[in-house]
Amino acid sequence: MTQKIRRKLKTMFPEKNESFLDSFQSLCFAMTIIITIIFVATHLVINFVLTPKGIELENLSQEKNYLVENNRELGQEIARIKSVSIIKEITGEQMSLNPDADSKIIYISNESIVAGL
User: Does residue 21 contact residue 1 with C-beta atoms inside 8 Å?
Assistant: First the structure.
């Protein structure tokens, strides 16, 4: 407050005014300190909780990316292995199994017929 207002208040309330102003300033200062401490404490608690969660989220994101890439590679490998042309190539080149032109496979769907061993 300005000096003019203080002087005016002192003349109106000589003793009560000075103690009221001092107590009001002390109260404002105390409230400011308390609010600052609460704000800092809240900020520290939030950071304490969120920092590990952020690290965990980053690790899980990296693991997800690795698994997605691994899944894509495995899908390509399964498609390659299941390919009929690859099976024919493997049997023809690596195992030396060439299909005979005379041999044919006949499928009979009758449950009463049993193959003899």
Answer: yes
